[in-house]
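Hi R.,

Here's the chain you asked about this morning:
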Amino acid sequence: MKKLTIKKLSNYLGKVVEHNIQSSLMIWGAPGIGKSSVISSVAKEHNLELIDLRISQLAPTDLRGIPVPKDDTAYWYPPEFLPTSGKGILFLDEINMAPPAVQGIAQQLILDRKVGNYKVPDGWFIWSAGNRKEDFAAVFDMPAPLANRFIHLEVKTGLDEFKDYALRNNIDDRIISFLNFRPKYLHKIDKNSPSWPSPRSWDIGDKLLKANLDLDPAIGQGCASEFRGFCKVYKSLPDIPTILSGDMSPKFPEDLSARYALTCALAVRAKTIKEVENAFLYIDKKGGMEWLSQCTYDVSTIWKSNKKVNELVDMIMANDKLMSVADKLQKLLAA
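And the predicted structure, written out as tokens:
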């Protein structure tokens, strides 16, 4: 099975749309890593309608429709949520969590692009997604004839991809710093708890954090406890506005968690090109190349999303002290 990162999955699906490959797709992956979000963004990017069905929540008649008598014959009236015109993606989510009877109806839709009297319009792609048994999901085995008609893709997530999303979407820098320090908590299923950390639950946790609420209901008690302990580090950090204003005197922390926190905070809170320059110069002087590279990664991600890359490049090229990061920055901006 082909394994892809979230970013590469998005690119792969984009090419499927561009080349109008009508074969059905099955996307496998752990819960909470962003499979549904990728489908939604691909549909939006290509101006396609999206019909998102949670197959596990449907009964067989919900897909097949209901029989209606007419002239001594039963005619099947299809449900209103299935497409009848235009172009789009019919997304059958949680397909392998559906009981066999529902999977059987879905199989007709996928194999034959029709159910009863209903036919999927030519301009529609049929894509599906589901979790794996190792994800502790209550899934059913997929029938071999159904599985054999899919293009199978397995998606995985990583810290760099989540950081890219987080930095572009103003996720609290305490979350980003914590995951830099403890990357195992990006996605860690706890089969004994209904809440556990995942990219999706960290996104929810960010909203709770901004509302001054505990993160336990989103990411689980154990992870939230460690996160609260990490956040206490912020009280010991040098004054960030002072550093961004150009003061090089504050001491660089010795504690590893504090170094992650300060480096990320400087990158996220630097709002002008001068503040970015001051952050770089401070870390170059006090922290060294390892932490300067970390800060460069975060800053480049933010400024790429703000479309201010040229200002960033010009600033670095004009400062001899920062030429050490020029090569790394060039690679990051080209990625």
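Strands lie at 2-5, 24-28, 49-54, 66-70, 73-77, 88-93, 114-115, 118-119, 124-130, 150-156.

Let me know if you need anything else.
M.
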